[in-house]
Design goal:
Helices cover 39% and strands 18% of the residues. It contains five helices and five strands. It has a five-stranded parallel beta sheet with strand order 2-1-3-4-5, with helices on both faces. Helix 4 links the parallel strand 3 and strand 4. The structure holds 1,3,4-trihydroxy-5-OXO-cyclohexanecarboxylic acid.
Length: 147
Amino acid sequence: ASIMILNGPNLNLLGKRQPEIYGHTTLVDVEAACSRLAASAGHAIRFYQSNREYEIIDWVHEARENMAAIIINPAAFTHTSVAILDALNAFDGFVFEVHISNVHKRESFRHHSYVSARADGVIAGFGVEGYEFALRRVCSLLASSDG
Ligand code: DQA
């Protein structure tokens, strides 16, 4: 199957931006690790990042056509975007929400997520490994829905 991995604003700076919070791994490294993991389970990923809300919404719409799951780190849009929530509500596959940092340990404005109302699971505070954990979960759900 195909799995879409979406990244919101400022994540293009991953590895350079506030490394004390987000670490030194870049988004290119995250994509490579996810790509390897998916391939080992017989799946393929589409990996995107944008600083523009509408682009993320358009990718969620595109995912309706042929993606089995969306793994999304909406970044700051997590806390602001009813529009991304609405787009995800129009998608039928699995949805997992990932945050590199533990948003609950940070400022109170990061404690609420619009996207969590749709997510089948949420990972926060596991660093960039959170993407791989979410992907493993998607792979096992896809394996059990095959059987
Ligand atoms: C983030 C947490 C958000 O609050 C923040 O705006 C981000 C990244 C995370 O991965 O920890 O940009 O989603």
